[in-house]
Amino acid sequence: MSFRISYAPPADDTLAKMRDGDTFRDEMARTLGRAPYGHGSTAVKEEHDRREATVAGAIVLYYVSGSVLIVTVVRLVPLP
After folding, report:
1. Is residue 36 packed enough to be buried (19+ CB in 10 Å), middle (13-18) or exposed (0-12)?
2. Measured CA angle at 13 (ends 9, 15), to 5 deg
3. Closest CA to 5 of 57, 63, 56, 79
């Protein structure tokens, strides 16, 4: 089972400015796209579907919608 990765406008804007955006997208599909509750992710404010993880050198805040198999990235913070 794999999840589709969607980017909210603020995260999409950040992604467009990243030098290694394609590599990041590939890593997102390989990790959170396959196991959004895994990859060292943690629940935010005790909400099971609101999660945070580090992927390819960026902090990712995202929501999981298990009923429709979508991971929505709402915030993306590349590490320096």
Report:
1. buried
2. 115
3. 63
Q: What is the pLDDT of residue 47?
A: 95
Inter-residue contact 6 to 72 (CB < 8 Å):
yes
Q: What is the mean pLDDT of each run of 10 residues along the chain (80 residues)?
A: 95 95 96 96 96 96 96 94
Give the pLDDT score at 53.
98
Whole-model pTM?
0.93
Work out whether strand 4-7 and strand 70-78 pair parallel, antiparallel, or are unpaired.
Answer: parallel
65: DSSP letter: E
Q: Categorise residue 70: left if φ over 0, alpha if ψ from -120 to 50, beta otherwise.
A: beta
What pLDDT, on the 0 to 100 scale, is given for residue 1? 81
